[in-house]
Amino acid sequence: MTADLDIVAAGMVTAVGLDAPSSCAAMRARLDGFQETRFLGAAGEWLIGAPVPLPRNWMGAKRLAHMAAAAIVEAFELIPEARGRTALILCLAEENRPGRLAPDSRQLLTQIEQIAEIASPIASRVITHGRPSGHVALEAARRLLASNATPFVIIVGVDSYLTSQTVNHYLARGRLLTPANSNGFIPGEAAAAILCALTGGAMRLTGIGMAREKAHIYNEMDIPFRGDAMTIAYKEAFAGSGRLHSDITLKMGDLVGETYWFQQCALAMLRTQRERSPVQPIWTLGGSLGNIGAAAVPAMLGWALSAVQHGYAPSGPILIEASSDDGACAAAVVEAR
């Protein structure tokens, strides 16, 4: 589907930087924020994680609220006229994920609005689909802007896998990276915000697609995994942008480290690319930040915006993809103005 809107500003709080410029520079340099955590693995070893080095040791929902508010304030500092004229869409972890730091989404939203001093002209919205939440938020933002309900929409994603219940849940299922398991992810946390408008940005969203995979990572029915949903998402995004897969010059993905997600990306590419093209580089967040959940898509869009503004992104359309454990898959195409 078509999804014309501009990305005009971004803010980030990550394990490699407390603002967008430092975070994007660190990810460009392939630096990481990995360190030993207070969590123990099955063999008694310290697990590796990617915590955000906040100036104060906030815990629980308060930690998420301060991270999200910092990202929002940074975006507003770049576009001060957006204050008081911006609708807020908050992206959070799946409601059924064990160990969510903020089980009451509305209460967290209120905390964020108070800390960031946001006065939204319309009711704020919460989306709880984990990593693909940002794509759902982009479609909601497109509709809000197209209806002239608000001149700006800010999408903020905040998430953390660094809780004991979450770590134990994924450790028990063999999904964390440990000395005994190379097919796992590193738990992380982050917040990222992108400010959207109809015009005025250096980067434009031109297409978006979404679908649901039946053969998801917890597939217990032994359905053959062919990457059907991500293939559909790719095709919808390409159709909306008027582009072919061979036109893409850069891919950005939430590939957190497990082979399932790389296989999904490869299958979708094999089933949608029909023309020869140069090798398309893939930039991933997992190598620097670990698995940051619902903050992934805003972070990738912010990184893409920085790369476009500073001239180190390849010239041409950028494909941004994300998917979740329950099979939700999404892809978007963005291009420099």
Q: Let me know the largest β-sheet.
A: 10 strands, mixed
Q: CATH topology of the largest domain, anyone?
A: Peroxisomal Thiolase, Chain A, domain 1
**CATH fourth-tier homologous superfamily of the largest domain:** Thiolase/Chalcone synthase
The helix/strand class is: alpha/beta
For the biggest β-sheet, the strand order reads: 5-4-6-7-1-8-12-11-9-10
Q: Count every beta strand, where a strand is a DSSP E run of 2 or more residues.
A: 12
- Overall geometry: globular
Gist?
By secondary structure, the protein is an alpha/beta fold. Helices cover 33% and strands 24% of the residues. The mean pLDDT is 95.
Keywords for this structure?
Peroxisomal Thiolase, Chain A, domain 1; globular; two-stranded antiparallel sheet; alpha/beta; 337 residues
Describe the structure.
This protein is α/β, with parallel strands linked by helices and about 325 residues long. The protein has two domains: about 1-195, Thiolase/Chalcone synthase (Peroxisomal Thiolase, Chain A, domain 1, 3-Layer(aba) Sandwich), CATH 3.40.47; about 205-335, Peroxisomal Thiolase, Chain A, domain 1 (3-Layer(aba) Sandwich). It has helices spanning about 20-30, 60-80, 105-115, 135-145, 165-170, 230-240, 260-270, 285-290, 295-310, and strands at about 1-15, 35-40, 45-50, 85-90, 125, 150-160, 190-195, 205-210, 250-255, 280-285, 320-325, 330-335. The strands form two sheets. Strands 5-4-6-7-1-8-12-11-9-10 form a ten-stranded mixed beta sheet, with helices on both faces. A two-stranded antiparallel ribbon has the order 2-3. Strand 11 (about 320-325) and strand 12 (about 330-335) form a beta hairpin. Helix 1 packs across helix 9, helix 2 crosses helix 3 and helix 6 crosses helix 7 (about 260-270). The two termini are about 20 Å apart.
